[in-house]
Amino acid sequence: MGKIATIEYFRVPPRWLFVKVTDEEGNFGWGEATLEGHTEATEGALDAMKLSLKGMEAENIEHIWQFVYRNNFYRGGCVLMSALAGIDIALWDLKAKRLGVPIYQLLGGKVRNRIKVYSWIGGDRPSDIKEQALIRKSQGFTAIKMNGTADLEWLASPSDLNSAVERLAAVKSVGLDAGIDYHGRVHLPNAVQLARLMEPHQPLFIEEPLLPGQVKETRDLRMRTIIPVALGERLYHRTDVRPYLEQGAVDLLQPDVSHVGGITELMKIASLAETYDVPCAPHCPLGPIAFAASVQADTAMPNFAIQEMSLGIHYNADSEDLTSYIKNPEAWRVRDGYVDILEKPGLGIEVDEDMVRKMSKKYEKERPWTTPGFVSAEGEIREW
């Protein structure tokens, strides 16, 4: 067994943060600690973690996870859990490659032979929906997700809600399933109203219909619509997820492998959800390492439903995409709404380290991607 020698991180466009862990024997693994809009804070957390983890046995993934999470009085939150995720994913990759097996073999083996996926259309203020839906269909997707609305007032105009329903109808007209992301933008007075308007068009789910922390309100909304309620990208640990499950506030859980502390915690969250008969659809509008880690977990996850895939997402426009930074981009070919299981050792992808280092060097001179945010004409902050 080898002890951790170095932990490096690489900020690369469009908005990703990759992590490489190398042990004293030269074995290495790759992880992703992307936290959209908080790159520099995550880098600071990684700086602290790499000092304390040097010299620890790289094989002891659970012990390292517990050490990072529990050894400090203050724990959890998006920054610390995303930094931990980058290290955790890299340790799983390192160990599985050293043993010559895919990560899913260390998680109990596969329970399915391919992975159902969906991709994005539209942008933060969605438009040209039907044309983009047809492109996704031609690429092999059978399901998409899109933002339901742009930014909204505390009490939205009926015209804003009706336009969201029209976009959903346009996507359904080309034969695709559609998840609708409220993105926490729709406040309580309109959240149920919009769901009721969408019900005749049968969306696959509505995501984050209310803001995180509004457990009771989300439960009440769920009881007033027949559309499955999905959430979880802004929940970072089992303790965050627990009240939603206990109160029956969620139909589809969406933990993000790069936000929940990596594969280790993702599998524990999925197991907790399984006891409530709640399926998981891991969140991942991120880079190829996070997606590969998600696919490895999906392969061994009994209650897996569908996987988010960032191929062609609007954040990647005019920049690198999901097939960048890896030497086997054919791994992400979509057929009939599915991607193949990754059979190669570790994450199943071969990271192009030369490109990562080159782009990181170039990108370090630029400001990291920041959340665009929404400000109304009246100057008030709106939910993005």
UniProtKB/TrEMBL annotation:
The keyword Lyase applies. One of its GO terms (biological process) is amino acid catabolic process. The keyword Repeat does not apply. InterPro entries: DgoD-like (IPR034593), Enolase-like_C_sf (IPR036849), Enolase-like_N (IPR029017), Enolase_C-like (IPR029065), Mandel_Rmase/mucon_lact_enz_CS (IPR018110), Mandelate_racemase_C (IPR013342), Mandelate_racemase_N_dom (IPR013341). Its cofactor is Mg(2+). Residues 126-228 form the Mandelate racemase/muconate lactonizing enzyme C-terminal domain. Keywords: Lyase. GO terms for molecular function: lyase activity. NCBIfam families: PRK14017.1 (NF010624). PANTHER family: D-GALACTONATE DEHYDRATASE (PTHR48080:SF2), D-GALACTONATE DEHYDRATASE-RELATED (PTHR48080). This is Mandelate racemase/muconate lactonizing protein-like protein. It comes from Zalerion maritima.
